[in-house]
Design brief:
Elements lengths: L1 E10 L2 E11 L4 E5 L6 H9 L6 E6 L2 E2 L10 E5 L10 H11 L4 H14 L15 H14 L4 E5 L7 H18 L3 E5 L2 H7 L2 E6 L2 E6 L1 H6 L4 H6 L4 E9 L2 E4 L2 E4 L11 E10 L6 E12 L2 E6 L4 E4 L8 E10 L2
Parallel strand pairs: 3-8, 3-9, 6-7, 7-8
Antiparallel strand pairs: 1-2, 1-4, 4-5, 9-10, 11-12, 11-14, 12-13, 14-18, 15-16, 15-18, 16-17
Helix pairs in contact: 2-3, 2-4, 3-4
Amino acid sequence: MLEVRNIYKTYENKPLLNNISFTAGVGETICLLGASGSGKSTLLRIIAGLEPAESGLILFNGHDLTSTLPHLRDFGLVFQDYALFPHLNVNENVAFGLKMRRVSQVEIFRRVAETLELVSLSRFGDRKVTDLSGGEQQRVALARALAIRPRLLMFDEPLGALDRTLREDLLKELRAILHQTEVPAIYVTHDQEEAFAIADRILILHRGEIIREGSPTDVWATPQSAYVAEFLGLGNIIDGEVIAKSEFRTEYGNFTVKCPHKHANGEKVKLLARPLVVAGDVNTISGVVTNAIFQQDRFKVTFDNGLYVYLNEAPRIGSQLVVPIKIECLT
């Protein structure tokens, strides 16, 4: 098990990572999700041993690796730009880490063949990596990381350079491979869809801190803060004021919300109005329709007040609309 304990790091005399702690168990994929500059890639480099922390510990199965050199940690790392050797063919790229570890030639041959089969590249061994597509090159990079039989796999925005369809296909394959090998993984991305597709547990970083941690379903269902809800694009964030128990005043009208928090009258809060229409809900939002854009299997309908909902059919532009919607309290 990987344990990251109280990692602290500054950049330009400001905290970049502030007391970061988490664990990753056998077969668990942890996704570090955050905007650019949130410190997620720096944290990955600290775990890999490529960059020092100013304080804190990196442990694996209880052993302190904080001062251990990167190549002695037995961690595999996959980058967005593949980092393949262009003068070597596929077999030679996958074998590189094994040769550095002075593995026997017979074992190298076996592991290269075994790993290329795992990533569906068995017939590509003699090809130049420069002749491969982006998706195929990323599979080679994954095979190279897996061939050394790492104790931990780390991914730094590995699919960022690929188009959407290829990215979705590789995500499915990668998740299946991770579950099959049961290697714990740390996956860094700024892409919410990617994170929710690959992760067993999501850690959202903001201003150097983990502000939300949980399974994808938990994080989606209960974002807990306005920042997380806005970052994930969960819906409309509305400023509200408590006027009575479960009653909130906003510029869009008053709403009745079952809220788990304790609030005093007059307290300022953030509310989330998810864009899915909930038939029969006591709360409604209204406005003049200014836009209706088809997205996948429904229409995103925007009102003149900036609020939006998703509907199965497109209303007429300029029409006045009132729709029932779910409102929840974030803070």
